[in-house]
Amino acid sequence: MEAATSSRILPQLNFNQNLTLLRPQAKLTPTVFTLALHSNSNDKKLSIAGGLSLSCSKQRKDFVQRTFCSAEMCTFPADAIKSHSDIAEEKIGVMLLNLGGPDTLNDVQPFLFNLFADPDIIRLPRLFRFLQRPLAQLISVLRASKSKEGYAAIGGGSPLLTITNEQASALKSVLEAKEVPVDVYVAMRYWHPFTEEAVHQIKRDRITRLVVLPLYPQYSISTTGSSIRVLRDMFKDDPVLSRLPVAIIQSWYQREGYIKSMADLIEKELQIFENPKEAMIFFSAHGVPVSYVEDAGDPYKDQMEECIFLIMQELKTRGVKNDYTLAYQSRVGPVQWLKPYTDEVLVELGQRGVKSLLAVPVSFVSEHIETLEEIDMEYKELAIESGIVNWGRVPALNCTSSFITDLADAVIEALPSAVAISTTSEAEAEADDDVVGYAIKMLFGSFVAFILLLSPKLMKAFKSQIL
Ligand SMILES: C=CC1=C(C)c2cc3[nH]c(cc4nc(cc5[nH]c(cc1n2)c(C)c5CCC(=O)O)C(CCC(=O)O)=C4C)c(C)c3C=C
Ligand SMILES: [Fe+2]
How far apart are CA 453 and CA 140, in angstroms? Predict the structure, then answer.
């Protein structure tokens, strides 16, 4: 986590000027809406599904279109933007949301436990929620050996924290150069430094305005949505945090700076092929279960498709007209995931006679296990076996300067929209207070998991589905 360096600051922001930088590209989903989420069921849906248009008054809509050009959605009041004099004494924080990864092989199983214990990763029906943690224990133990193999192959741990820290300090430098001094906090969902640690640090540092920036270009319930839920839960009951003005950048896949940075990387990597025009551009995105999209309204698939369309459009303007395709990788467990699956498409392309292929990881902006192991090792081997002769892979954006500059612009654009979080509903508070019910459910869940662990037959069937 970045040490707090700035004391009380006088940001040299001209918000009116910054607002003119906003681009009217977000057609499907909002770029920005805030943490001021309400707790009735409709609004909850709004908070997690991110792309659904609910009740914005015309006046508020006009305001959003005029300022953020992200249309269709807003959760902040029109008077939220303060004048320059109001924010003159701000201490600005930027919270980078990311997934986190195990630092060592010993961390793999507890990391997996945290991941599978997340109700946004394994979405059990309400009635079965009590099974979440026992199930997470079981699945994490069963999956650990496979995951460990992967992490061992990339040096014994995830590179995610190192890269995210580098991105954090690069972002801080760019914002400083733009005369917007900030403290940047890394908030990982499943491993250190946890979101909770970052939030405590923000409180200790007396941050007065916060921008939340997920390091996922596209919004998914399972990634950005999950981290925002944790934040909301932490903020809503805290007397200080519930008053802190917060702006959340929900997704930024359509930002010009990001699209151009991706196109730069692709264009450069194509040049390595003997015949660049013949290489198929193969976008490989991390998958999510189909039910997220079809039942829960996850905008991830739509955003992914639009993102690829925009990248290809940008490439076309540069004269790059290669064939391209999109597939989804990294599925886990027995349910249906978004199709087509990367491994199946690779085999088909080989059979169809495609000889040159450029893999482009597109759902994440750092190198991680799924680029370094799954794509660079497993998929490359599969592609070569299937008849692909020339294989290339576009590196993750990491600290590419045009990309970091664009993130800095996104932060500046989001700053004026920060508003405080609303308080929780009674119903939610009651549900949280039901400690006895929770303990009974936990006991029952542990018992079920214990039975499963003791039954070799059940265990074998279960394992074959998980691995
Ligand atoms: C946009 C990116 C990601 C989505 C969407 C996503 C959904 C998702 N993931 C799992 C299960 C696992 N993910 C794992 C690692 C992992 N996932 C992402 C990104 C997204 N996940 C990243 C960047 C990483 C790697 C972190 C690192 O250490 O480098 C893992 C662990 C690795 C493994 O065993 O394969 C699991 C498990 C689910 C179930 C899911 C959606 C429901
Ligand atoms: Fe994942």
Answer: 13
